[in-house]
Structure formats: C-alpha cells, structure tokens
Design brief:
It is built from ten helices and 13 strands. By secondary structure, the chain is α/β, with parallel strands linked by helices. The strands form four sheets. The protein has a five-stranded mixed β-sheet, sandwiched between helices. A four-stranded mixed β-sheet has the order 8-13-12-11, sandwiched between helices. A two-stranded antiparallel sheet has the order 2-3. Helix 3 packs across helix 4. The structure holds oxa(dethia)-CoA.
Length: 323
C-alpha cells in the first residue's frame, strides 16, 4: 500500500484595495509602460486597515475547506508560509487555527519567502505520509506591502498582498494514476542570501526592516534554478514535460515565466499567469494562481500540474501533483 497527499480543495483571498500601475507612478518615478514591459504587472492588491496576513490566510483557508467539503474540526495540521507574520511570534498559523476553531492539532509557520508555499507543501506531504496527521491546511499568505520601501522604485512596484490555501488529505493510492502529490524537490543556496533580503529583524536591528533586492541577479539565477528543479521532479516521476497539463509558477515576473517555459519546451498556453493582476505576492503567489485556475475551470480532475517557485535565501522548489 502506498500513501499520497491528495489535493481536496483550494481557496484564496485578496485585500479590498486594488492598486493599478498608474497609482504607483504617482508615488515614485516610474510609469505603467516600464512596469508592464519589464514585469508584466498591471495591478496589485494592498492590505488596508484590519487586513493582516492572518485575516487573509483565514479567508483563503475557509474557502479551501468549503471547496474540499471538509469541516475545520477535521484539520489536524496547519502549515503557513509567510515572510510577513502578524507578529514575530506566535506563529501566524496558530492565529488561523484559533480563528477557524480547530485547536489541538499541529500549527506552525515556515519561512522560505517566495518558495515558502512549496516548502510548506513538501513538509505537509511528508508529515501526512508518515502518519503525523490526516488532513492539512497548507497556506501561503503575505502582506508584503508592510515591508516595502515605498521610496524605492526598484522594489515597491513589484509586490502585492494576498493569500492562497489548499486542503490535503492522505489517501491510499495503489493505482498509478491516483491523485496526489507525486514528487517534490526543494533547494536552498545561502551563499546568495544578500541578493534578496530584509534589512532588519528582531535579533539585529530590533526593527521589522524593508525589502532589498538586486533584481537583475535574482532574475538570472531564477531561470536556471527553476528549469533545473523542474527537470529533477520530472526525472523523479519518469514523466516528460509534454505530459504536464499546467505549470503554476511563482508570479514574480512574466519574463521569468516565459524564459523558464521556453527552456523546458513548454508552450506558454500551459502556464498559469496571474502576475498581471496580483503582482508578486511572495509565498501567496503559487496557491493564489492555483486557486484562480481551479475556479475558472482551467485546472480539472485528473490533470498533471507542476508548481514551482524561487525566492530569497535563495530558496527554490517544485512539486508535481495529479489533481
Ligand atoms: O520573488 C522573488 C524573486 N524575485 C524575482 O524573481 C525578481 C527578479 N528580477 C526582476 O524581475 C527584474 O530584474 C526587475 C523587474 C526587478 C528589474 O528589471 P530589469 O529589466 O532587470 O531592470 P534593471 O534592474 O536592469 O533596471 C533597468 C533600468 C535601470 O535604469 P538604468 O540604470 O538603466 O538607467 C533602473 O534604474 O530601469 C530602472 N528602473 C526603473 N525605471 C522605472 C528600475 N526600477 C524602475 C521603475 N520604473 N520602477
């Protein structure tokens, strides 16, 4: 008997306020043309009063539970990926647990920035298949707007806020085409931690800090690392790129999505793109894009879906799922 973590439902949440590029051009020396041409971003959502990482995460989780037809009381594991927790501690996952009223199971945060959801998914999959839990909520949620330097045009135009969640359930899966997570690969290379970071923290400055990024260098590493990890996951499963129905990438830059797809010989029609509407929502971006494509009917039962992300650390990873 083999066990698989099966994706039972997805959900997402966005702040109330949409901010188009034209508004960014009133804040810093930039233009709609520059942002669209260099990144593909046209819009982002920015959290307002009362909207935090935990409120967005809780809304996304509720929608995922509803889609899965699973009661919050049956969730015994919550893993939340974020770089913008409500507080330094406790883990934001425990705030979501309390809001959902499913106390008593396991709840913790993971920190891998834009790859955080892939890391959380990999950890949840391992815990489910080793019997530590039966049903998991895996969430990526961010209020990145709160750690942006709003005077720095090289970063502030790129990010947005939001949350995405999935419900996983461990099931027996003897049939080769049974649904579930087929393979996950995760990596980190700490030698590059100075190319994308926050210039503060509890143990150094005692402040929250702001995002700093050497964008061009991150871009270069992203395309190579992502193409490599996608190949690793395909090798693990014996599947080919041509068999993938959808790629749901981290939404950092439309040019990275295009370049990675091209390297693997995947047609652009198979890539889910939401960066135009959501911008880069860090750990939220993959589950937010996944939920978008599930709800609009593109991603359907039985299909093979590849998730992938790369971010600060550097960290990167990919996961292949049969829906
Ligand atoms: O989510 C984690 C992973 N993050 C990423 O994957 C981000 C990866 N990097 C990128 O997406 C791109 O490198 C950026 C979108 C950040 C930048 O695009 P680029 O084509 O690499 O531009 P650049 O940094 O080489 O800058 C080109 C020019 C510079 O001017 P000069 O030096 O050529 O005169 C910048 O000062 O564009 C200028 N610039 C801007 N101009 C207008 C930078 N930001 C802006 C801006 N508006 N917002």
């Amino acid at each position: 008997m083999s066990l698989r973590s099966v994706l039972m439902g997805t959900g997402s949440a966005l702040p109330r306020r949409a901010v188009p590029n034209s508004e960014m051009a009133q804040l810093v020396d930039t233009s709609d043309e520059w942002i669209v041409e260099r990144t593909g971003i046209r819009n982002r959502y920015i959290a307002g009063e009362g909207e935090t990482t935990s409120t967005l995460a809780t809304e996304a989780a509720r929608k995922a539970l509803e889609a899965a037809g699973i009661d919050a009381a049956d969730i015994d594991l919550i893993i939340l990926a974020t770089a913008t927790p409500d507080q330094t501690f406790p883990a934001t996952a425990t705030l979501v647990q309390a809001a959902l009223g499913c106390n008593g199971g396991i709840a913790f945060d993971v920190s891998a920035v834009c790859s955080g959801f892939l890391y959380a998914l990999g950890v949840a999959d391992s815990m489910l298949r080793t019997g530590m839990a039966k049903r998991a909520l895996v969430i990526g949620a961010e209020t990145f707007s709160r750690i942006l330097d709003w005077d720095d045009r090289t970063t502030c135009v790129l990010f947005g806020d939001g949350a995405g969640a999935v419900v996983l359930e461990v099931q027996d899966s003897d049939a080769p085409d049974a649904p579930g997570i087929l393979a996950t690969r995760l990596h980190a290379d700490g030698a590059h931690n100075c190319l994308l970071y926050v210039d503060g923290g509890p143990s150094t400055t005692g402040t929250v800090g702001k995002v700093r990024m050497k964008g061009r260098e991150v871009f270069r590493h992203a395309v190579t690392n992502l193409a490599d990890v996608l190949r690793e996951v395909l090798d693990d499963t014996g599947l080919t790129a041509a068999q993938i129905d959808w790629v749901v990438p981290h939404q950092a830059n439309a040019r990275i999505l295009d370049a990675t797809a091209r390297k693997l010989g995947l047609p652009p029609e198979k890539v889910v793109v939401t960066v135009d509407q959501h911008a880069n929502t860090s750990a939220a971006s993959v589950p937010l894009a996944l939920d978008t494509a599930v709800r609009d009917g593109r991603i359907r039962k039985g299909q093979l879906v590849m998730l992938e992300a790369m971010g600060g650390g550097f960290t990167w990873g990919a996961s292949l799922i049969r829906i």
